[in-house]
Each structure stands twice: as C-alpha cells, then as structure tokens.
Amino acid sequence: MLPILYWTNMSGIYDYARIQDRYYFATIGGVQVTDRNLFPLLSLTFSDGLPSNVILSVDTLLDAIWFASKGGIGYVDGEDVVVYPSSSLPISDFRGTRGAFSYGEHYIVYSDEWVLDINTRGTLNFSDDRIRVVEINRIEPIARRPINYVAVHRDSIYIGDSLGVIATRMDFLDIPASYRRVLSLNSANIIRFINDTLYIGTGDGLYTGDSAIYSGYSVIYFDRWRDTLFLSLRTSGNHVYSPGFLGKLYDGNFSTELIPSPYMIIPAGDGLLISSFYIYGDMINENSKAIGLISYPDFIPHFFGMAPFNYITNIYADDDWLYVFSGRNFNRPHDTLSFMGFDYTNFTFFNPDDPEDYSVRGVSRVDDTTFVVATFFSIFKVFQNGSYRKCYDGIPDDGDAFTSILAIGDTIYATAHSGQVFMFLNDCSTRLTTPYSVVGIPRAIAYNESSHLIAVGGDGGFAVFDGNAQVFTDNNLQVKTIEPFGQGFLVGTGQGLYRFNGTSIRSIPSVQSGITDITTDPTGYVWVLASDGLYQLDRFNLNVFEKYRLSGISAEFTSNWPLKNNLAIYSDTLLLAGTSEGIAVIDLRRTHTVLDSIILYPNPAYDEFNIRGVACGDLNNVRVMTMTGIPVRTEYTCNNGKIHVDVRNLRKGLYIVDIILKSGRKVLKLIKE
C-alpha cells in the first residue's frame, strides 16, 4: 500500500457517506476519509486496490463503505479494498458509470446505458446469482438514453432520462415491459424523495410531480435544510464542471449565493458543506483556486492539507521551501498553459502578467532566499518575500526556447531547444554560451556536488562534462530526467533507468518503462516515476523494493500526466504532482518508526547475530552482502520469536545486512570477528 495521506486537490467531490464521526468522500482522487472537522485521516487510491482514482459514489451497506468508479465497483472494509470480480458481473465496461446507492440489502449501480442491482442478502460475499441488470436500449422507445439518475422509494425504482421519469417495481427491475413513463419533463437530472414527496431537478428547474416550483436554470443537485431547498444550478449545460451558482427556495421565494459551480449539498450540524467544481477561467489567480468544500452559512473554504489549484503542473521542494506551479485548466495541453506559482512556505503568489511567459520548464535554488524559474521565453528570480524579477527576457534565438535550468552558486545554466546550454551570471541579464550541448532537444541538466560533474540529456543523447571538457557521451539515449547519485548520475529515459558511475553507463533492469522523474528520500530509497507506476528502489543495488500503481481507468480526466518535476521530497513526505487529483502527499514516516528501533546484536558478531525489533511474521528476508554489494551465503532462523543469522562461515570484516520487512526495509552494518 502506498501510504498517501491525502490528495491536495479534492475539488471534485461527487458523493459522500458518513459513519459516526467520519466522512467518506468520493472524489477524482480516490476515497478521502476525514474526521468530523474534515481533518484527513486516510486516502484510498488506485495504488490501494481501487479500480480507478475517479470515484463517483460512496454509500454505507453492511457496515462497509461501498464505492462505484469508472473502473468497477466494490467496498472498503476498514482499510481493506475489495473489488467486485469483473468475471461475476454481466457488465464489463464501467466507463459510463453515473452513480450508485444502497437500498435495504441492495446495492444499485447505474450508468448512462444500464442499471445493475446487487442483492447482498446480508453478506459481503460476492455471488453472481444475486445480480440483475436492465439495459436502457431494451426499454426503448419508452425510455431515452442516456440515464441521468436513478432512485428507489417504497420498493419502486425511478429512472431519470432526457424525457423525464420512468418507473417500475424493484421486483421487476430486469423486466423491460414493466416500465411506464410517469413524468414527461425536460431532462430529469436528479430524483429525490423528501418526506414522501417526489422532487425532480431538470434542465429548466425544480418540479414536484409535473408542477414547477422553480423555473430557470438547470438543477443538477438539491437538498433541504431548515425548511429551505438549496439548489445546485448550472447556467449552461448539465455537467458538474459547467458554470453555475447556489440557489435557495424558501416559502416560494428564490434567492442566490455566490458559491461557484456547487454540487453536493451536505447537512453538517449547524450548517452545510457544499462541494465546488470551480475550474473555469483564463488564468489561475488567488480567487480561482480549486475548492474542495465550502461551509455554509460562514462561506469558509476547506482544503485538504494545502490550498490547491485547479491543476498542478510542476512542483519544487528544497529543504524547507515548497513551491508549486499550476496551469489554468485540466483539459488544455500542458505546454501551452499560462501559469502561476504559490510558495506554501511563505504563502506568497508568483503570477507573471506577460502572456508570453507560460509553461514552467524548470526550477533551481540559488541560495536560502532565492531560486530561479525558467519558462519558455524568460528566466525569473523569485525571492522568499514573494517578490520576483524577470532577469532575462526574450527568446534565446529565433525559434528557440528554454527547456530546463540549473543554478550552481552564482552561475545559472539554461538549456534550450537548439541543443545549446546558455550561462548567465548572478544578475542573469548577460547571456554567455558554453561548451555543453547534446544532439537534439535537451530536457534535463544536473550537477553532482561530489564529483563536480555536469550532465546534460535530451532527445538526442546524454553527455557528461568535467569543467569545459566532455568526458562521456551516449547519443542513443532519450533522456527525460537526471538525478545526482554517488559520484555520477541516475538517468531516466524513454527506454528505462540507467546509471552513470562517473566513467561508464549501464542499464538498470529494475525499471524498463519510460521515466518521468527521479528523486532520493532521506532514508536512501530511490523513487522513480515511470509510465507504469511509482518504483521504490534500494539505493545499494537499485533493486525494486516496492512498485505502486498510480492510475486507474480515467475516461473523463487525465491521470499520471508526464510533466516535469513530478516528484519532490518535502519534510517527511514524498510529493507526487501532475495529475488532476492535485498533489499526492505520501507519508515517508509510515515505516520509519518501526525501522528506527531495529538493531543487530551482538555487533561485532562471531558465529551468529540476532535482529531485535522485528517480529518473525513481519520479516520477508535477510540478506548479508559485502561492502561492494555482493551477496554472501548465510542462513537465518526464527525461533521463539527471535531472529538468528548464522555468519560463522564469513571472513572477518565489515558487511551490509539488508533486513526486508513487509512494511519497509532497514540496512545496517555488521562487523564480523
């Protein structure tokens, strides 16, 4: 399980369920669990077993949280995710899923094409003999595709479509001939019963039966609170992301509230929580951050962890400094976006006014108070007090543009589309040429402080320089990212992972897919973001310690977008950016508490040593290696809860002991006498 604490961008909240003092939110970033004060407790995503990150519905049934997604259905029992086996379902394609809910012992899921009824019969065990389904094309011409909403009341099922509402008894759900049209209306978006009264939100208002109690904009959700009907309205279209506002009906009088694009209306104690899908607008600014929930009547926005923007495209963290950059809309090409930045450490904004300054290409720290940002056509200096200065303005050369940036002391290096690496002095107003270059477009530049080597890589290869002298080149690699490692570099390419050790380069078989970013955490693990998931590697031999899946079926939203600077280490967390879900905040401390208590004794050892702080059931393996990483033959046993490792056949010297647990890994040194 990837220990994600939360996704920062919970702007897309489709549904909720509440059990005692916990909220369960269905979001575009998985299932988010919070306490009654909305403090994040748990985030369940595709990496935890969900069939997709786009969760459309959650509800309670048999003391579990059931979910429906664009990739399938299932339930969450505690922290365990159970997915309904697709082989047991008459439906194989869930991409058109609209929602789901429980009714008695039934779990009902619907898409724009079908309605699925699972009769649990009081047990969580899946069984295909409890499933019924009706497809909307079998009910035509009485019904009209697509299905917008489904509700059940007093053992009758109601289906809203573009022509109004059709209905039948629950017992006859899978009998097409039993359906009758009960209401003819303009697109039934939502159907609810309040005190046994049928309410329908339509494309032109709110109805009770066939009588309009509000006429005007499209109603996509509503609920009653303190004798007032609260309406989620859309000024154009019926989609949650369409522009709209909050309406109120009290005693026949209509009024509005300026909550942008509301959807879910959640009664919560003395007020409401209203989810907002606000993403439209030409430029991100302080007033158009993506909002998860807005409380009513105090109108306080609630973010999960950090104030999110609509779409995080770049992230930069260095020591205690965290900066993120955002584009303006999730469905625009990332290389043509205007952008802004936000310094979470000091809560200051960086938003260039020049429309030519779009798409952050790289960020690098200069000193404790300054870092530099390269955009397509400019270089900025950004200061810790929130101010910034454009220190180089203009296209590098005709048809050229910057691709990445690196600060080494007072000198700034910027790569360009032409294959050149330009050098700027501290004021970065004067541009100088350098001998550094690669064939094709360079994508990354890095500096190793130990060996003083500079590496440049891109579409046409990888090159290493010592001072002004080129000491290595390989023109066959398609380089995406470079990370200093040992005396050389780790090189992420379109073909997989490579390691340059200071003199030569070799392929690392652990990762053979296209790589977006690489970083190393304080405990020594190497994290590699690739097209097929997030890899956690052992830094000694770069073997895979764990691999995490990141993206589920996402027909409506992009996920795992290959952007620059997706990974960053900030405090005790690993930050993963560049998806519609915002930033994944991954807890690196989740395994450290146990790992820090592990010791070897006796040490030095003669015939054997013991491992303290590890239960036998938590241990996967123990490996003993020479200091150069060569495994040596040893055996371990576990008797009476104690782990013993036999080293009597080893020569005297210093060894590495690699302790592999189910929840992490600990590497220690052993002296053999």
Characterization of this structure:
With 673 residues, this protein is mainly beta. Among the domains are: 62-302, Methylamine Dehydrogenase, Chain H (7 Propeller); 593-672, Immunoglobulins (Immunoglobulin-like, Sandwich), CATH 2.60.40.10. It is 1% helix and 54% strand. A hairpin with a 2-residue loop joins strand 2 (13-19) and strand 3.
Give me some keywords for this one.
Methylamine Dehydrogenase, Chain H; globular; Immunoglobulin-like; 1 helix; mainly beta; four-stranded antiparallel sheet; 673 residues
Short description:
The chain is mainly β and 673 residues long. It contains one helix and 63 strands. It has a four-stranded antiparallel sheet, with no helix packed on it. It has a four-stranded antiparallel sheet with strand order 2-3-4-5, with no helix packed on it. A four-stranded antiparallel sheet has the order 6-7-8-9, with no helix packed on it.
Layout: helices, strands, pairs:
Blueprint: E1 4-7, E2 13-19, E3 22-27, E4 30-35, E5 40-44, E6 55-61, E7 64-69, E8 73-77, E9 80-83, E10 97-103, E11 106-111, E12 114-119, E13 131-135, E14 149-153, E15 156-161, E16 164-169, E17 180-184, E18 188-194, E19 197-202, E20 205-208, E21 211-215, E22 218-225, E23 228-234, E24 244-250, E25 253-257, E26 262-268, E27 271-276, E28 293-296, E29 301-302, E30 311-318, E31 321-327, E32 340-343, E33 348-350, E34 360-367, E35 370-375, E36 378-383, E37 388-393, E38 402-408, E39 411-416, E40 420-424, E41 431-437, E42 442-448, E43 453-458, E44 461-466, E45 469-474, E46 479-485, E47 488-493, E48 496-500, E49 505-508, E50 515-520, E51 526-530, E52 533-537, E53 544-548, E54 567-570, E55 573-579, E56 582-587, H1 592-595, E57 599-601, E58 608-612, E59 619-626, E60 635-639, E61 642-646, E62 653-661, E63 665-672
Antiparallel strand pairs: 1-56, 2-3, 3-4, 4-5, 6-7, 7-8, 8-9, 10-11, 11-12, 12-13, 14-15, 15-16, 16-17, 18-19, 19-20, 20-21, 22-23, 23-24, 24-25, 26-27, 27-28, 28-29, 30-31, 31-32, 32-33, 34-35, 35-36, 36-37, 38-39, 39-40, 40-41, 42-43, 43-44, 44-45, 46-47, 47-48, 48-49, 50-51, 51-52, 52-53, ...
